[in-house]
Design goal:
- This protein is mainly alpha-helical and 490 residues long.
- The chain contains 17 helices and two strands.
- A hairpin with a 3-residue loop joins strand 1 and strand 2.
- The longest helix has 29 residues.
- It starts with 18 loop residues before the first strand and ends with a helix.
Length: 490
């Protein structure tokens, strides 16, 4: 049987992980060893006719099988992939975020993942089927990344996280899922459950981000695993623990990413400078980024000089837009303002993943890179905002009517423009047939801020340009491992 996400020739030997003793004190040989030889004969019978292999190749296969079993099969729970057959594709070489590679030494040893399980792990992964959700969006059959994206959205919006922190939450959750699934593709880990891996990774990160939601998160994990654990409880437990291990590594990263840095001031003053109290996350521009080198890597041109002709033209553009808004423009303002931009772009991805047949790994990769790009875009944008401290339009235009409340942070540049510019590039890379659509969505997000009365044209134009540069940077990283990903996932 060929498994989804495995190359031709890969086989699972059930029962292989139950060793039997041959002679006390000498060695232990897996009970499924004879099945390997039998399966190997079947594979080679096809291989001989197709590839005209020589007898030396046949003998070499069995020699490798005997040696690898003797060396690797002793006293470990494992499912093997015959190395003599043309498989050999692993996640080694894929870009990972919190892991050094699929062989990261912080991960549990292949086959022994279940030995690190806690009582809670066993209760969730192999306990009685108690998980259930009445929410049609959170049903067991949902793609694991899509499932946990919806859980993260609900928790983040309920907690009213500021947009940069919401973007951070999305990125941490999806990077943990993706890295865990990439680690599971290491050949000697065998056949694991993508749902259980994702559940272990995501619930660990979400429990760190939203500790008050712990019981709800456990229920969500049980709902995601409902049915699977009836078939093979130990496989589910091993998968869960692997995901949980990556989740813990992601949490350790999060605890040192600088998100808790405290602004000590002083705030600048002067003509054209933003005024207010408790500005939102002024240290966000210093947070550790995922793909960009830092928040300073991509920065715009400076804002127009206060009182210059260009500055006056921008002021006039905002004022005129406030006098001539159409009903369609107001609707577009609300489209992009009623939810934070990270949630909007994740929903665009959700819609497409729900209708696609991508493997769990490829879907997780799309979520990870989209959210890493948006998070990095926030950091770069906030670096700009608190470099220039540009006053908002309402602070300079007496009596200005805005469609929506003005956010409590400086104007230059527009976060919607920056985040959307980056997101559009990643989405266009994943769904190339819709590249123009996503670019149009980014431009619409940008202009909506002018129509809403909360940004100048310069804010939007420069924000969009910087966002696109960030998106291009992320896409270059994605393209480096595209061919290897196709081999793994198809």
């Amino acid at each position: 049987m060929q498994h989804a996400g495995r190359p031709a020739g890969w086989c699972q030997i059930r029962g292989f992980d139950e060793p039997i003793g041959i002679r006390p004190g000498i060695t232990r040989i897996p009970a499924g060893f004879v099945l390997i030889l039998f399966r190997g004969l079947r594979i080679l019978s096809c291989h001989l006719f197709e590839e005209k292999s020589t007898m030396k190749e046949v003998l070499a296969f069995f020699a490798i099988t005997l040696i690898s079993t003797a060396l690797n099969g002793c006293d470990r729970e494992t499912v093997v992939s015959p190395q003599g057959v043309e498989s050999g594709f692993s996640s080694e070489g894929l870009h990972t975020f919190v892991l050094t590679s699929a062989h990261d030494t912080r991960l549990p040893s292949p086959g022994l993942e279940g030995r690190e399980a806690t009582v809670r792990d066993r209760a969730i992964a192999v306990g009685a089927d108690g998980g259930h959700s009445d929410n049609p969006h959170l049903q067991p059959g949902t793609d694991p990344s899509l499932f946990w994206n919806r859980v993260a959205t609900a928790s983040g919006l309920t907690a009213k996280l500021p947009p940069p922190l919401l973007a951070r939450a999305y990125a941490l959750v999806h990077i943990a899922i993706y890295d865990a699934l990439a680690a599971s593709e290491r050949g000697d880990r065998g056949d694991l459950s993508s749902r259980a891996i994702a559940a272990g990774a995501a619930s660990t990160v979400l429990d760190y981000l939203f500790p008050a939601d712990s019981a709800h998160l456990d229920s969500a994990a049980q709902a995601q695993l409902a049915g699977e654990r009836r078939r093979d409880g130990r496989r589910i437990l091993r998968s869960w623990v692997l995901g949980e291990s990556v989740g813990q590594i992601a949490v350790t990263h999060a605890q040192h990413d600088g998100h808790d840095a405290v602004f000590t001031g002083p705030m600048p003053t002067g003509p054209g400078i933003w005024t207010g109290v408790n500005p939102v996350l002024p240290m966000c521009g210093t947070w550790q980024t995922w793909i960009c080198s830092s928040g300073s890597e991509f920065q715009p041109e400076p804002p127009f000089a206060f009182g210059s002709a260009q500055d006056s033209s921008d002021l006039q553009a905002v004022y005129q837009a406030s006098l001539n808004r159409t009903a369609e423009q107001v609707a577009i303002v609300h489209k992009w303002a009623d939810q934070p931009p990270p949630a909007i772009w994740n929903n665009l991805l959700n819609d497409r993943i729900a209708m696609s047949e991508r493997s769990a790994l490829r879907a997780a990769r799309a979520y990870a890179f989209l959210n890493a790009a948006m998070y990095d875009a926030f950091v770069c944008c906030w670096q700009t905002k608190y470099t220039y401290w540009t006053a908002r339009p309402f602070q300079r235009i007496p009596g200005l009517r805005t469609v929506i409340p003005t956010p409590n942070f400086p104007s230059y540049t527009s976060r919607h423009s920056t985040i959307s510019g980056a997101a559009a590039w990643v989405m266009g890379e994943v769904f190339s047939a819709e590249k123009d659509f996503f670019a149009a969505q980014a431009r619409e997000a940008a202009i909506s801020r002018l129509w809403g009365g909360i940004h100048y044209p310069r804010d939007n134009d420069q924000g969009l340009a910087v966002g696109e540069r960030i998106g291009q940077r992320v896409v270059r990283v994605m393209r480096k491992d595209h061919d290897r990903l196709v081999l793994i996932s198809n």
